Amino acid sequence: MEERAVKKQWWKEKVVYQIYPKSFKDSNGDGIGDLKGILEKLPYLKNLGIDMVWLSPVYQSPFIDQGYDISDYYKISEVFGTMEDFDTLLAEAKKLGIGIVMDLVINHCSSEHEWFQKALKDPYGEYAGYFYFEKGKDGNPPSNYRSYFGGSAWEKVPGTDLYYLHMFAKEQPDLNWENPKVKKELFDMINWWLDKGIAGFRIDAIINIKKDVNFPSYEPDGPDGMCACTAMVERVDGIGELLGELKRETFAKRDTFTVGEVFNLKEGALEEFVGEDGYFSSMFDFAPHMLTEGQNGWYDTREVTFLEWKKTIIQSQMECQGKAFLSNIIENHDEPRGVSRYLPEYAQNPDGIKMLGCVSVLLRGIPFIYQGQEIGMTNCQMDSIEDYDDIDTYHQYREAREAGLSDKEALEACYRFSRDNARTPMQWDAGENAGFTKGMPWLRVNENYRMVNVADQEKDPGSVLHFYRKLIALRKSEEWKNVFVYGEFLPLFEEDESLFAYARTDGEKKAVILANFGKEEMTVKFSENLGKVLLANMYRPQQINAREVVLEPCEVLVCQVCE
Ligand code: NOJ
């Protein structure tokens, strides 16, 4: 079997949980989650079956982009605690067998970082070379790139005719990866964190580090006369050299787990990036999440059918079979909640939520569970744009208004796609502020916390939370690990418009996952015999012993198949 070509590696067997530290658990009543809060909840994570925790950035930052703008890579932000708190968290997590994965943001830093401050003071000096300080052209910026958060990707360097490049906010200047000193600084920093004993890194916006230093302008793609800065990223060659060096100088020296946030990957580059000797252990599969992407942002997204969504996931699975190991998500801190996005209204109930979780977690690849996903947290309706605290949401709202949408319509788009949907505080219990803080939460708590919270679900063996525990336990069980971790992925009934079905097999044992996303019950027929029930979200006897099965709407069933 082709699958044998892919070797066993420790990180492939893990289940990862993403924590958005600002919103996970506040221990000191300032309304912002912190490291001590995370420490307090380690047993909860252990109980869920989590092996690694990815922390969104906890470094010192002015929080223009919620920590993705780092002003000191060696310091913990005081809102989260101290380096001592971090070391304690790392040590305590280790005792429970949980590894810590740090967020690595090295395409850019904060404009408050010492390097940038020095560069501003001496725009032709050494530190200007840490960034892209370029001369404008005929009174205009060096090129017509639009930044991810809107407006030009070039900002004037005060008192000069220079501009600096920022693909994200102007407070996030891009670092110059052509400069050996910058690389050395970054590699040293990465090794410093690895020396502490962290398990690895989630690597932010990494495709952007390679620039075409001629900064050519491209055909405008919008009425502002600009083109997305990704136009350059998609065309430039040579990222491989930088990533190869990054790996050699840091991750490869130990058995570090790395997962790349990679968009705009060139065709045919999958194995180079995440194959057996790839630059990273894994990368996220964003293909299903990209489907909704329209021409003009959130107010202009595409409607995606169930079939399209399912086929996109299947295609990703097939493309990496035997070659690479993707990381699968249904949501993260940049995406809306999966429950609100991928489940039709009739399925937005505990059964539907379990079904969605099940088809995702048993795919081939590493399951990443985002905080609150395990209890079925949903998008959060805000009353006004002021309720949001996200630079991208402000930008998307502005775009929508400029395109002629009313406040209500623009807010509706934010309700569907805002990054803050996933950033509202974790819903721990039905008490004040959902048990997240004793203070005033930095971002509004979703009103549904009285219905959707950890404490209530702990008490209910039929809850989404208990289901996730069983699901993770099944994936990691001695009996089924080889099938669900290393086994082949085989799509089934691919053209069916309601059924999401696939099999996993290691050549010896085989299991099928059947999920009815439709409104009607359905009969599914097999040529093989359905045997032992491994997991179900509705009542099932322990054995099916038949070649066909009737599935209720929102029913998911995992069972062994025998010849
Ligand atoms: C991707 C991160 O996930 C996102 O939150 C951030 O805004 C950008 N990269 C810039 O760092």
Q: Can you describe this structure?
A:
Helices cover about 30% and strands about 20% of the residues. The protein contains 17 helices and 21 strands. The strands form five sheets. Strands 13-12-10-5-2-1-15-14 form an eight-stranded parallel sheet. Strands 16-17-18-21-19-20 form a six-stranded antiparallel sheet. Strands 6-9-8 form a three-stranded antiparallel sheet, with no helix packed on it. The chain is globular, with a radius of gyration of 24 Å. 1-deoxynojirimycin (NOJ) binds near residues 68, 205 and 333.
Radius of gyration, CA atoms, in whole angstroms: 24 Å
Ligand set: 1-deoxynojirimycin
Shape: globular
Q: Bin the strand percentage.
A: 15-25%
Structural category: alpha/beta
Sheet of most strands: 8 strands, parallel
Topology:
Blueprint: E1 16-19, H1 35-40, H2 42-48, E2 52-55, E3 59-60, E4 72-76, H3 83-95, E5 99-104, H4 114-121, E6 133-135, E7 145-146, E8 154-156, E9 162-165, H5 180-195, E10 200-203, E11 227-228, H6 230-235, H7 239-249, E12 257-260, H8 270-274, E13 282-283, H9 287-290, H10 306-320, E14 327-328, H11 338-342, H12 350-361, E15 366-370, H13 391-402, H14 407-417, H15 454-459, H16 464-476, H17 481-486, E16 488-492, E17 499-505, E18 510-516, E19 522-536, E20 543-551, E21 556-562
Helix pairs in contact: 12-16, 13-14
The structure holds 1-deoxynojirimycin.
Residues 65, 68, 105, 168, 204-205, 261, 333-334 line the site of 1-deoxynojirimycin (NOJ).
